[in-house]
## 1
Amino acid sequence: RVPATSALRRNAQIHRATNLDATERTEEAIKILHEGIAEDASDLEAIVALGNIERGRKKFAECAGTYSRAIDILPDAAKGNWVYYYFRGICEERSKQWPRAEADLKKALELQPDQPHVLNYLGYSWIDQGINLDDGMKMIRKAVESRPDDGYIVDSLGWAYYRIGNYEEAVKHLERAVDLKPEDPTINDHLGDVYWRIGRT
């Protein structure tokens, strides 16, 4: 019902798309956002909303391109812009473009050096690939210090210890992660893996 001439029209359309996606009408949501972006290619809010929907729906190749459009129109290299590089890095990592993902995660840390989610993602990715182990562990420990009650970040530290063969530390942190996020299947699977390694049931 917002008039087409209203200054709130574009914002209303973005919220409409977000709500449609939340009710599993994702294709309609994406169509609305594409139409809005076609009308105004500089609409950063609409572009990011589209990228967020694509990322949430695991359309990782698509969301990497969408976040690239957002980054291309950013006004400056402000600290707050770290999130766009972080989101694009996630999409690139998930779509098997690791060199690009690594560069974007490093850029996000350059803009916001102590951001725990970026520290966790980059550190975890390095350790999972068996590279930069010392730096990766330092990053994840720093992330846990900043967010000690975040089950996903605590899980990363436990899994990192598992990957380097320190099962005693792995159990301690993975049990803590399960306490924080008992419903998460991946965290429970990680704890099961380390229990199997040490012969516990």
## 2
Amino acid sequence: MNVEDGEVILEVDSPHKGYSIETRIVNGKMNGKGSIFNQDHIQIASLVFVDGVANGPCKLYDEEGSIFFEGCFVNGYREGKGKEYDENGNVIFEGFYEEGRRMNIVPMKE
């Protein structure tokens, strides 16, 4: 990526042609808060980049802009505690993720 440091809007190529990422470039890589928009400029993700990789709190939205996931990314994958929502905004899964996959573990209560 040959982009000046500072605020940027990056156009995404295949397979998500028409999508864009609004974020900040530091030392040639995406760093800080970022938003991803679909071709209709509806936000489909709110996340944090560290050296070009999604790391930190995130919210993911469907193509109409309704939330379907809230949690964290670590090295570009859903990781740790997260929630999934149905099309009406109701929580349909709350639990833990490892490398993007739901884990079948239940937290212990004291």
## 3
Amino acid sequence: LEIIEDLYQRNIQSILIEGGPKTLQKFIDYSIWNECHIFTSNNNWSAGIAGPLLVNAQEVANMQLLTDNYKIFKPINNL
């Protein structure tokens, strides 16, 4: 949260987070996100790292991109 406060003091109002599941989950847990873009594929890699758990979110867009699916979510309290 110190980073968020520092960004606010510098008048930076928008950032893009491309972290791993632990970093992303922290932003979700502290409710300091306003949009989430998720790409999914039909390919099964059979192993990997689970993504973060998106809670209190509502899907606002769903698009098919070739064989992949692209969804956009927003926090329920920000709609």
